[in-house]
Amino acid sequence: MPTLRVHDSPAALPREAWNRLLDASPRPTPFMRHEYLQALCDSGSAVADTGWQPMFLGLWDDDRLLAACPAWLKSHSYGEYVFDWAWADAYRRHGLPYYPKLLVAVPFTPVPGSRLLAVDDGARELLAHGLRGLAKEADASSLHVLFGDEADQAALAEAGCTARHGVQFHWTAAGDADFTAFLARLHRDKRKKIQQEQRRVREAGVVFEAREGRHIQPEDWDFFYRCYQQTYREHRSTPYLSRDFFARMAGDLPEHWLLFTARRGGERVATSLIALDPARRAAFGRYWGAVEHIPNLHFDACYYQPLAWCIDHGYQRFEGGAQGEHKMARGLLPTLTASSHWLAHPAFVEAVNEFLAREGQAMSGYMDELNEHAPYKLKDAADAASS
After folding, report:
1. Same domain, yes or no: 145 and 201
2. Which Pfam families match (predicted)?
3. For residue 296, what are the domain limits?
4. Per-residue model confidence as pLDDT tens digits over 194-215
5. 156 and 291 co-located in one domain
6. Measured at the alpha carbon of residue 215, what is the angle toward residues 39 and 176, in degrees to the nearest 5?
7. Would the CA dihedral through 259, 262, 267, 268 be positive or negative?
8. Are 298 and 290 in contact (CB under 8 A)?
């Protein structure tokens, strides 16, 4: 009979077995690799002291790992990108504690993908039910599984969770020979705007260099982290991820990173960091920063340079990250995301389910509205939407 165990660190779960489950999952991403999750913990970025207490769940058959997921007991709702602040406030107004809550997610990473790793659907359902049991044992107000795939959604629905949908903006390859061919498929106003923005960046004397994997040097990472800190400083916040985390990425998962550095007069002025999944030809926009303001540099560093690189290297997908309707004007199209939620308090279950039903209807209308404003010419928009 399989046994569910709670582990206080991903280190308690065998790396090879975890990654085998991930590679066999419906939608693997680099962010669910054992090395990535371990680095979050070992670098002090996602630990109890920062409000992320690891409670990784494993389903075992003797010494064989049948299913597993990254779970965290949270004392806040920061770093999640699926917003439940209104739910927490409703609990507070009724004199009830919303925290701790149980969260299944990759911290600070709003990238859709498999969350409940399992050898089959039966093991995945056992894991989903185990999460509900763990939430009760931990006296958590609720369970939240963020950005899961369709198999996750099905297992969690069977376990009594309710779905919630959001929207992101992704680019999908359409066989363009180069970035110029990509631009040619856009409506004229969108194409002209992009060309104008890139021209202004060039006129400012900015040139880009791209470094991949082990070609990214320690001094490149150092400058990137300076820019990363600056981005948070400009928003009067502090970075979620430590410099040590990125050092671990450079050492443990170098093949999953691409760094664009913008220079002017030979001096570094900005960077954007892109995550790569070479096996599945997918790229993910992650972090950006600049040490001086140059108009339109953000768009070039975060969208145009990565898209051109993806086209040149045969990548099939580029995910632009959380939110941002402005990404549509850059050729990224709206894509639904999903999460699953369960609340322990029966009075709040009905209220939240009613809210999610209304929100779901509004999201459907929002997607229709977005699709009416696709940036591509009519035939290309239809092809992109169906790909």
Report:
1. no
2. FemAB_like
3. 174-315
4. 999 999 999 999 999 999 999 9
5. no
6. 100
7. negative
8. yes
